[in-house]
Amino acid sequence: MILDLFSLKGKTALVTGANTGLGQGICIALAEAGAEVIGVARRSCEETAELIKESNGSFTEIIVDLSDKNAVTKITEQTDTLGKTVDILVNNAGIIKRADAIDVTEDDWDQVINLNERLVFFLSQAVAKKYMIPKNEGKIINIASMLSYQGGIRVPAYAASKSAVMGITKALANEWASLGININAIAPGYMATNNTAQLRQDADRNEAVLDRIPAARWGTNMDLAGTAVYLASHASDYVNGFTIAVDGGWLSR
Ligand code: NAP
To answer: Is the CB of 43 under 6 A from ligand 1?
Structure first.
């Protein structure tokens, strides 16, 4: 049956940034599709756990600050302590720092690049090496952005990092597709989460963004659910290195 291809029963998914926003929506979606979800966050994922419990799903949290230079080791060690392996990795956590390009500090630049770009690569490397390559199977989903395609305004480090996410997705797919690992990305459009709170509070920018979205609304964290389950499941086994926009039509304008 075609719908069986989308089932994640028997799979374990590790999702970074699981306490809120798009990461929370992805955790709920993967759990509803049958996966055991391990959420990584720097604070409690109580709300995510509660929402997953309501649908009888499975959720465990690992608390790690992803800006810690030992974050990757801490995540794999705690995954081992839980007695789990990782079948699906979602590199979702990300930060954005808004400033005119002329004022961007090196510290802000490094923070954005370290989390949004460097960690995506090295967590993927560790998870592939330890859990996926030995099984000859795995799914990695990176969270890209409209700024993987465009330059944006007042967010140059973010635009650089998200362009890199698209590049990393293609580069890893070229090396690991033959090892049974699918690496793809989702590029969300303008979604109502903490990431865009400042933008939505600015009446002019809010109106300008809304005017340009063909679907005429901000996205919600559950708008990524179907695409996340698809990319995590056997339904996407021959999809490699591609970034799927879930953007209410933003890129079509
Ligand atoms: P969000 O609500 O701000 O979520 C970001 C997540 O990353 C949070 O869970 C946050 O934890 C976590 N995080 C940040 N720094 C961390 C650290 N040092 N250690 C551990 N966790 C950390 O924003 P979102 O919109 O859901 O963002 C999720 C992803 O989607 C990001 O990669 C973002 O760039 C991308 N994205 C968002 C949009 C959008 O319109 N919202 C569009 C395109 C792409 P805390 O809650 O503790 O900060």
So the answer is: yes
